[in-house]
Design goal:
This protein is 23% helix and 29% strand. The protein is α+β, with helices and mostly antiparallel strands. The radius of gyration is 19 Å and the shape is globular.
């Protein structure tokens, strides 16, 4: 499942890449995560259950609608991270993306065509055909390695249930090697308690990879991001990932979750029955909290909320402005808000 052999490659490659990246590095970087909500192309994939997102499916997902969806998501990506750096986010994890076609079309949009973004995506086992992906600025983030991590979840009869792979990426940012795990954990459709074991299973895969990295380097810089379908205080996040809300407690392998206190303040990234959940999180290892001079360290966590991302009228006023109301296209963005984490170089 987890390819250990690439670590030697990373070590050797990083030595060369640091020389070329150092002159182009900034003093601040922002990373982001965004669940793009059903980001399909219009073509029917006969191996997946994506019929509703085709021109003749129940959503009437035509080329016109797809074009609007591309523009809307590009508008969001274009603005992520620009509060700290005019170049925008250095990399962005995505969820609910169908394939390479969607990402190629996204990066061709006018809002992004002059940016330096490339993408990583692998086709996974999700029945609907949605996957996690990573957009990255190749001039600032030097990609070293990428692979999908399969998660085996079995039902009571011992049959494996398909869930989305974890996308594992390593690269050089500034003078640091950074490891990123992009997640989209199983939903709560069958009930939060009834499906908790599935999310715990994915959390444990994230944790095993994290432990492997930390065993090789106790200061490894690890970022776990994604739509976890659980809040920061849920069992899968607290005990599955071994997260803490206080930076000073991020020791002995514990991970820092800056979203815990934000969630406790009453805000979040998606609304359900007028209650905010904060399923979209970016969690970091202690190596990114306090660093030596020139290395990356955590600065702040933010929910990216803009007026255009929020429904301004009607029954769902105040909710994220999603793409569809039922099967009717309403020219929205997503039912989730993006999240960002900012880093700066230690002085």
């Amino acid at each position: 499942m987890f390819n250990h052999r690439f670590f030697l490659f990373i070590t050797v490659t990083a030595c060369f890449s640091l020389l070329s990246c150092a002159q182009k590095s900034s003093s601040r970087y922002t990373v982001a995560f965004y669940n793009t909500e059903n980001f399909f192309d219009t073509k029917d994939n006969p191996d997946k259950d994506d019929d509703e997102f085709t021109p003749y499916g129940k959503n009437r997902y035509t080329e016109r609608v797809y074009g609007q969806k591309l523009h809307n998501i590009a508008r969001v990506i274009d603005q992520l991270g620009t509060d700290d750096d005019p170049n925008g986010a250095v990399f962005i994890g995505l969820a609910e993306v169908e394939n390479k076609t969607v990402l190629s079309d996204l990066l061709a949009q006018p809002e992004l065509s002059n940016r330096n973004y490339r993408y990583v995506i692998f086709d996974g086992p999700d029945p609907r055909g949605i996957n996690t992906a990573l957009l990255y600025d190749y001039k600032r983030f030097h990609l070293l390695h990428a692979q999908p991590l399969h998660v085996a979840i079995k039902d009571v009869d011992g049959n494996e249930n398909a869930t989305r792979d974890i996308l594992f990426v390593s690269g050089v940012l500034g003078i640091d090697t950074v490891h990123v795990l992009v997640n989209h954990w199983p939903s709560r459709r069958e009930g939060a308690d009834e499906s908790e074991n599935k999310r715990m299973a994915v959390a444990q895969v994230d944790r095993r990879v994290t432990d492997s990295l930390l065993n090789r380097n106790a200061s490894a810089k690890i970022i776990i991001m994604g739509d976890l379908n659980d809040d920061p205080d849920n069992e899968s996040v607290v005990n599955g990932l071994k997260t803490v809300a206080d930076k000073s407690a991020a020791v002995n392998g514990n991970l820092f979750n800056p979203w815990f206190n934000i969630y406790r303040s009453g805000t979040g990234t998606l609304l359900f029955s007028h209650h905010w959940d904060l399923f979209d999180q970016i969690i970091i290892s202690s190596g990114l909290i306090k660093s030596s001079k020139g290395h990356l360290q955590f600065s702040k966590a933010s929910i990216f909320e803009r007026d255009f991302l929020i429904t301004q009228y009607g029954r769902f006023r105040g909710y994220p402005h999603r793409s569809f109301a039922g099967t009717r296209w309403i020219n929205g963005y997503s039912d989730h808000l993006p999240v960002t984490l900012s880093f700066e170089k230690a002085r």
